[in-house]
Amino acid sequence: RICGGEVIDIPRDNDFKLDIQGIKKAIDKKTKVIFLASPNNPTGNCTTRQEIIELLDTGKIVVLDEAYVDFSRESMADLVFQYPNIIVLRTFSKWAGLAGLRIGYGLFPEEIVSYLMKIKQPYNANAAAKVAVMASLGDIDYLRNNIEKIVAERERLFSKLENIKWLKPYTSSANFILCSIQQDADISISEYSEHNEETLAKIIWRKLRNKGVFLRYFDTPRLENFIRISVGKPEDTDMVIKTLMEVAKNE
Fold first, then answer.
1. DSSP secondary-structure letter at 94?
2. Cys-Cys crosslink for 68: which of 133, 174, 204, 249, Cβ 3.0 to 4.6 Å?
3. Hey, is 107 helix, strand or coil?
């Protein structure tokens, strides 16, 4: 927007998959770049290799945000060596826990790099972040072990969420799980009625917050009946499940 560009948003389908045909239909001679994330935030699903290739074949630059890729093992980084119009972005914020330091990197075809180097700020990464990155790379085995623990706990959390009848968890390849609140489910929340301005999801989010359990609520039309649960330690999972059940019973 600063540079006078216009953002064209192509909504995902009901299962949060890309609308490839909708994207291609929206492309015109003014289209400069296609942005997408895989795994996607907040839905946690990945874009398939075939879908990426189909978008690359449009000839437009495709920027693929792989912030959560370490939890999925479905990277498209190798496509940088095969296509001249793909950019893959990575971050140390998630898997290495350096979110506050704002440090990441990109994988680019050489021609695109030559343009980026002309316009990037000269000191775009601070000294503390660089030190933290080197320390992270020096302790890579520990961090990879943490990733394995998170992936395993994600699967355990998902199985427990599936057993809650009024929740529908969506399969995730990230370090969180998105859940929809089933409106017709047998759930006893005294404050909820069809005349209440708050959605059922927001009431549940607020009640959990009051009990010291902080989930993510998205106050947007598409996700107003969803909550997102981050994957933590096993004891965190147990506390979340316990509190969700308490809220449903109005305790």
1. S
2. 174
3. strand
